[in-house]
Specification:
By secondary structure, the protein is α/β, with parallel strands linked by helices. The chain has ten helices and 13 strands. It has a single domain, classed as Ribokinase (UDP-N-acetylmuramoyl-L-alanine:D-glutamate ligase, 3-Layer(aba) Sandwich). Helices cover about 35% and strands about 25% of the residues. The strands form two sheets. A nine-stranded mixed sheet has the order 5-4-1-8-9-10-11-12-13, with helices on both faces. A four-stranded mixed sheet has the order 3-2-6-7. Helix 1 packs across helix 8, helix 8 runs antiparallel to helix 9 and helix 9 packs across helix 10. The longest helix has 18 residues. About 45% of the residues are buried.
Amino acid sequence: MSLLVLGTVALDNIRTSRGHHRALLGGSAAHFSMSARLFTKVHLVGIIGEDFPPKHIQFLRRKGIDITSLIVRKGKSFQWHGEYKEHDLNTAITLATEIGVLLNYRPQIAFHQRRLPNVFLANIDPDIQLQLLRLMDKPKLIGLDSMNLWIARKKKALRILMTKINLFVLNDGEARQLVGETNLIKAAKALRKIGPQLIVIKKGEHGVLFYCDRFMFTFPAYPVEHVVDPTGAGDTFAGGLMGYLSKAGKVNEATLRRAVIYATTMASFNVEGFGMAKTAEMTLPKVHARMKKLVKFITP
């Protein structure tokens, strides 16, 4: 069950107490793909500039990502310059953002990709996400991610989008900002009323809350002793979640619980290295070994 993801493919410049790295392969769609690829064929939709390093494109191909719909345009690639303080690794400080070729981007996909059954709209402008959905031919499962910027600037477009999707993945701060509820269970219920049937609220190092009409559950995060770079952890989580559901081919309580466990485990690999240093090395045996430890924390 193939999976199509739309999002950013970026060059990340990141500084933490562990070091400073420039021009790392990043972006919501790229990080998502690194975990989703372990479960299914991933078709990445995005745009890059002519300055994008060929080594990053070759890397995506080596990892089995279909980049047929990754467009190259004249101009600069999207770049993010960010920093994390030692005392708060959950919060990224944006130093600069270079929009580049994203400014006038309209997604394009190959004809055969229109019928793919699973679609994930990773973090990017909601108007671009809506444009992509109009190209698809009745997908069975549609997931969505967003961020505080779009909630603040394009809430109307985001709320329209929420009526067209099945699964919404966002963090606790974004959930509270979007619906104005402090309590996360109330926030999840308010999000459900807008449209999406499945709500996943990430709580960083404090785990994740899942909500739907029939049941809800919560799991802790995998305890990571040495956090190096949290950039892309949420996208890695989403890739594991959506990737597993795509492979399972059905959505029920059992598959949702297992998908969240996979997603949580994979996100823990992401934070242990800069960029994709750790997620690029992930294999299912490695993930399963760590999952067993996580499950023991939950049910000894």
